[in-house]
Design goal:
Shape of chain A: elongated
Shape of chain B: elongated
CATH architecture of the largest domain in chain A: 3-Layer(bba) Sandwich
Number of domains of chain B: 3
Low-confidence stretches of chain B: none
Number of domains of chain A: 2
Structural class of chain A: alpha/beta
Largest interface: A-B, 18 and 17 residues
Strand order of the largest sheet of chain A: 10-17-11-12-13
Largest sheet of chain B: 5 strands, mixed
Helix content of chain B: 55-70%
Radius of gyration of chain B: 30 Å
Number of helices of chain A: 7
CATH class of the largest domain in chain A: Alpha Beta
Oligomer: heterodimer
Distance between the termini of chain A: 26 Å
Mean pLDDT of chain A: 94
Number of strands of chain B: 11
Mean pLDDT of chain B: 90
Strand order of the largest sheet of chain B: 1-3-2-4-5
CATH topology of the largest domain in chain A: FAD/NAD(P)-binding domain
CATH superfamily of the largest domain in chain A: FAD/NAD(P)-binding domain
Strand content of chain A: 25-35%
Helix content of chain A: 25-40%
Radius of gyration of chain A: 21 Å
Number of strands of chain A: 19
Chain lengths: 324, 599
């Protein structure tokens, strides 16, 4: 969206091709954004408003097949003539069912962070039977930094998401015990570390360093998790009412189609689109005229994605000038 | 006839080479035989006068000479090997007959047989015993030469003979191979020149001799015979140190195997017979997924056996293998490649167990009771859908079940065994076996083929039959204790290595799948099925390689056009699921979905 806004501001005529029924991507599912707890809706509305004001053309419910020499190939076989393309197709959410040992879609009361955001948006967070959880455990790095599911990369935003959601749970369930099971806590952004401190000191969230190995049901319908507390050096078992899997970012399934259709675009081993280089060319690809913005190239925060949108637009302008 | 002598200076290289060959082989075999453990020697004593010996003789004929197993894999390659083995063998046998036919029963030294044509130019030519020996010998020589032409062609273009890759040669191999290439062309040349000079020879040597007659001199003749003798001598000296050692070693191997000798988890003298019987033909290379899909080289069975033979085996080579058994299926010599790899790992890695697993003793957390026991195994516990499905199936037939490890148990021991830690594995096995035998169970069901394999192979469980859950379910169906609703879904089935090649279970899972839908087989299936890539034996593999192999496996299933993948191993299930967009389920889950309890 930001890329389109910047292009429009430069007097160009951008077109947004969107697969779903509305722009905004996954932001539309989120409740509040870390680290400031800003409502996601607020950001979304502001961006969408500016888009409308700028009169940017948006093609909804339109799937992209690939990028050819003449422009963007659309699903119905049509070709959208374009002088340059910015790929802002984002990421997929890791399918937690692949970590079968955590029991997602096997036992009740195992959720993902995406489920929690949706429940928060609906204003009703509760267990399967409608009751309030008394003990909640968050599991970090589900589908991130995990060779067993072919996801070696760090998804970056999950640590802070776990901290944020744990604090939101605290607001909703003041009496509950809340645990975070982690390998490392990576608080890279401004205000993140402070939020982490706050979660421990003010919200009373317990952080246990150790990966959860498996979850199994108990006779009374709760969930028993096995983990190792690596700071104490002991294996441990804990019975919880609610298990939240902090799912990672997976490279978008469409990336392969993109790389196959467009000569010059290559993928990193992780499946994300490989940028031309990591520094000055971070929004360019190996194909002239094809640029990227956001999580198409790697896991990114919303702020970073917006910044990249502006940068990609600038690169497009530069590219078009040269092409003339 | 009396004045025939069988000596000339040029025979020296041949005589020396032959002497060295037999001395070395004698030394090796005596050493290996005398070092056989007592129980192996007992087996030899018991087997030697049994029918097994007759069968071994027959197998020597079909394998060492005819190479039937290679023919089955690749007819062109089969022809090449047979032409060398059978052709050369017949040249020797018919050559001996020829000598006898011409000279009667008189003693002829070895070189007299070999260089018969040179020493017997003074004899009257023509058929003996009604056989035109010269023509027969020429025919045999031509047969060998045709194989040689194929061999030369294979060195240049291996693909033409149906092999994508051939083995790289060691120094001994190069010397032996080089001299081998010269032997038969030199023989042809020498015999032809002699034929040209004396107007003898069959259709081949005679006519070539006729062509060479204008330029043939005695000097040239001697040079050719010298060349032939040197080629033979060099080949024989290099032979016991090269891959051609297999020519002889396969014979004692066949006998010992027929008498019941097998390799074990610990290295022993019998292994030498297997290792030196490897001809390094390289047929094991093409089925190897590590090579084909992950580009890993110099670790395949042929290289492993080579490195072990020359005492330069490293842990990297020993550990980089999934022990899927695809190469073992192809091996024309029938080597126990997995067991050999296993006992190498043991030799390189085993550390005494001491009290490492003392904590695991007396930790019986089993529950329930009854005649049927269920052992989930760690991978099933990490795949709770399978466990849930088994619970439903047991409930549907009203089976009283003793749950061995539903709340956590002790490892079956196979992962430790496969890594070479045999002593530690024995600890685990002891703990489990003791726990099983305390129960009243007569049947132990497991849904993990890895556990199944080790239960059947290493556990002594009197009165307890261990079955895979696919076998158990098939029995329930057979007895009419459960029914399945038929469906229209198209399934493809993945044979887990430990279940298929490991335990020989191919049919039961397929029978079950056919009851609930249509079964479409992947391109490689059954005994040749692909490994999922996640084998617990592959602890030396890096994750990149595992990933590449996984992608290839996922693609193979997608190409079948099936709507979903069914397998019968929790580890395979996980491995396939992360590499395909198709749904992947265990056979038990499919059964649960279609379950109709019998009335």
């Amino acid at each position: 969206m930001q890329a389109a806004l910047s292009l429009a501001a430069d007097g160009l005529k951008p077109v947004i091709v969107e697969r779903s029924g509305a722009v905004g991507g996954k932001l539309r599912d989120w409740h509040r954004l870390f680290p400031t707890m800003t409502p996601a809706q607020e950001v979304l509305e502001e961006m969408a408003g500016r888009l409308e004001h700028a009169g940017v053309e948006v093609m909804l419910h339109t799937e992209v097949e690939g990028i050819g020499s003449k422009g963007v190939t659309l699903a119905e076989g049509k070709t959208l003539d374009a002088a340059a393309v910015i790929v802002a197709s984002g990421f997929d959410i890791f399918d937690a069912r692949l970590k079968e040992e955590y029991g997602y879609h096997v036992y009740d009361n195992v959720y993902t962070t995406v489920d929690i955001e949706r429940m928060l948006n609906k204003g009703h967070v509760a267990l399967h039977d409608g009751s309030a959880p008394r003990r909640i455990a968050f599991v970090h790095c589900v589908g991130s930094r995990d060779e067993k599911v072919n996801q070696r990369h760090c998804s970056k935003v999950c640590c802070i998401t776990g901290v944020k959601q744990a604090m939101e749970m605290r607001e909703l369930f003041p009496e509950a015990e809340i645990y975070n099971f982690y390998m490392d806590i990576r608080m890279f952004g401004p205000g993140y570390e402070e939020l982490y401190q706050q979660a421990q000191q003010e919200s009373g969230i317990n952080f246990i360093r150790g990966r959860v190995s498996e979850a199994s049901p108990t006779i009374d319908g709760r969930i028993q998790i096995k983990a190792e507390d690596t700071l104490v050096g002991r294996p441990m078992k804990m019975t919880v009412d609610m298990l939240v899997l902090i799912v990672g970012m997976k490279a978008a399934g469409g990336n392969e189609r993109l790389a196959a259709s467009c000569k010059g675009v290559t993928l990193a081993p992780s499946g994300f689109v490989a940028p031309k280089d990591m520094f000055a060319g971070s929004v360019e690809t190996g194909a002239p005229g094809v640029f990227t913005a956001g999580a198409a190239t790697a896991p990114k925060t919303i702020g970073e994605s917006i910044a990249e949108g502006a940068m990609a637009a600038e690169k497009v302008v530069e590219y078009l000038k040269k092409a003339k | 006839m009396e004045n025939l002598t069988f000596y000339h200076g040029f025979v020296v290289p041949f005589v020396v080479g032959t002497s060295v060959l037999f001395a070395v082989i004698f030394y090796k075999y005596v050493r290996w035989f005398t070092r056989l453990p007592r129980r192996d020697r007992q087996k030899v004593r018991r087997g030697i006068f049994s029918f097994a010996t007759v069968r071994a003789v027959w197998e020597c004929f079909t394998e060492c000479l005819l190479h039937r197993r290679i023919w089955r894999v690749n007819p062109l390659l089969g022809y090449m090997h047979t032409s060398f083995a059978l052709g050369w063998f017949l040249l020797i046998v018919v050559g001996w007959l020829e000598t006898t036919a011409y000279l009667g029963g008189r003693f002829v030294p070895l070189q007299g047989h070999i260089f018969f044509k040179f020493f017997t130019t003074g004899l009257e030519h023509g058929p003996r015993w009604g056989i035109d020996f010269e023509a027969v010998m020429d025919l045999l020589l031509l047969y060998v030469l045709s194989g040689l032409a194929l061999a030369l062609f294979k060195r240049i273009r291996s693909r033409a003979l149906g092999m994508r890759r051939t083995t790289r040669l060691t120094f001994g191999d190069r010397v032996a191979l080089g001299s081998l290439w010269f032997i038969f062309p030199m023989r042809l040349l020498a015999e032809s020149i002699t034929s040209g000079l004396f107007g003898s020879g069959g259709f081949l040597t005679g006519s070539l001799g006729g062509l060479l007659a204008p330029v043939a001199t005695q000097g040239l003749e001697l040079a050719a015979w010298w060349g032939y003798s040197i080629a033979l001598g060099v080949f024989f000296v290099a032979m016991p140190f090269s891959r051609y050692m297999h020519i002889f070693t396969e014979v004692p191997l066949i006998f010992l195997r027929r008498w019941g000798l097998r390799s074990e988890v610990r290295e022993k003298s019998f292994d030498h017979f297997q290792i030196e019987a490897c001809s390094r033909c390289g047929l094991c290379l093409d089925p190897c997924q590590m090579q084909r899909d992950a580009g890993l080289e110099q670790v395949q069975s042929v290289y492993f056996v080579r490195d072990r033979r020359y005492n330069r085996l490293t842990r990297r080579v020993a550990d980089t293998c999934m022990m899927c058994g695809r190469c073992e299926e192809r091996c024309p010599v029938g080597l126990e490649l997995n067991t050999l790899r296993l006992n190498s790992r043991h030799a390189l890695r085993n550390t005494p167990a001491n009290d490492r697993y003392a904590y695991a003793r007396n930790r019986d957390t089993s529950s329930g009771g009854g005649r049927t026991g269920y052992f989930a195994g760690c991978m099933t516990l990490l795949s709770p859908r399978i466990l849930k499905a088994m619970e439903s199936i047991f409930a549907a037939v009203g089976e009283e079940v003793w749950w061995a490890d539903r709340s956590g148990g002790v490892c079956c021991g196979r992962p430790l065994k496969l890594s070479g830690e045999v002593d530690a594995a024995r600890e685990m096995m002891k703990i489990n076996a003791e726990m099983f035998s305390k129960q009243e169970i007569t049947t132990l069901v497991t849904s993990c083929p890895i556990c199944l394999k080790v239960f059947r192979e290493d556990y002594v469980l009197p009165g307890i039959e261990v079955v895979h859950h696919s076998e158990y379910i098939e029995r329930l169906l057979g007895e009419g204790r459960i029914g399945l609703t038929p469906g229209t879904e198209r399934f493809t089935y993945h044979d887990p290595c430990e279940l298929g090649r490991g335990c020989g279970i191919y049919k039961p899972p397929r029978e079950i799948v056919r009851r609930v839908g249509t079964l479409v087989e992947p391109a490689e299936t059954g005994r040749e099925a692909m490994c999922c890539g996640s084998s617990i034996a592959g602890n030396g593999l890096d994750k990149n390689a595992v990933g590449k192999m996984g992608v290839a496996v996922g693609r193979a299933f997608e190409q079948t056009g099936a709507g979903s993948v069914v397998t019968a191993c929790p580890l395979c299930k996980k491995a396939i699921a992360r590499n395909t967009s198709l749904p992947v389920a265990d056979i038990a889950e499919i059964v649960e979905r279609h379950l109709v309890p019998a009335k």
